[in-house]
Design a protein that fits this description.
By secondary structure, the chain is mainly alpha-helical. About 60% of the residues lie in helices and about 5% in strands. The chain contains six helices and two strands, in the order βααααααβ. The protein has a two-stranded parallel ribbon.
């Protein structure tokens, strides 16, 4: 099974740092969030244990990081730029998009190893 984990949220943070409309007062908070993001992805990729412990570790890491992004970064910002542009920037939504592929793990769902040609991650499609 191929699991593709693209750093969609990490790319959004880097794009935000180079956004000329980002208020100077929020720049340091975004830079701190980049560090938090790196710690979060490290915690996700290094999580171990049986299925119950692994799922608990993954969800705890998600909840802590998502709370940081939504509350500490966006809602508590000095300026209202991040809050007003929340839908456009998609900082909070991409946290979940980046997290979901971590659930495609044979330690969590043993039956995944029996499915042939299964891939997880972004896919191109034609509708």
């Amino acid at each position: 099974m191929d699991v593709v984990r693209l750093p969609a949220h990490g790319e959004k943070l880097i794009a935000l740092l180079i956004n000329t409309k980002l208020p100077a007062s929020d720049r340091k908070r975004v830079e701190e969030t980049v560090g938090q993001y790196e710690n979060w992805t490290k915690r996700l990729s290094e999580a171990t244990g049986d299925a119950t412990a692994l799922l608990a570790a993954l969800v705890q890491a998600l909840n802590e990081y998502k709370r940081h992004v939504e509350l500490d970064l966006i809602f508590d910002a000095e300026e209202d730029f991040l809050y007003r542009q929340k839908g456009q920037l998609k900082l909070d939504n991409t946290v979940l998009e980046e997290f979901l592929p971590y659930l495609f793990d044979v330690r969590l769902i043993p039956g995944l190893s029996r499915i042939k040609n299964l891939s997880c991650g972004p896919q191109s499609s034609f509708a």
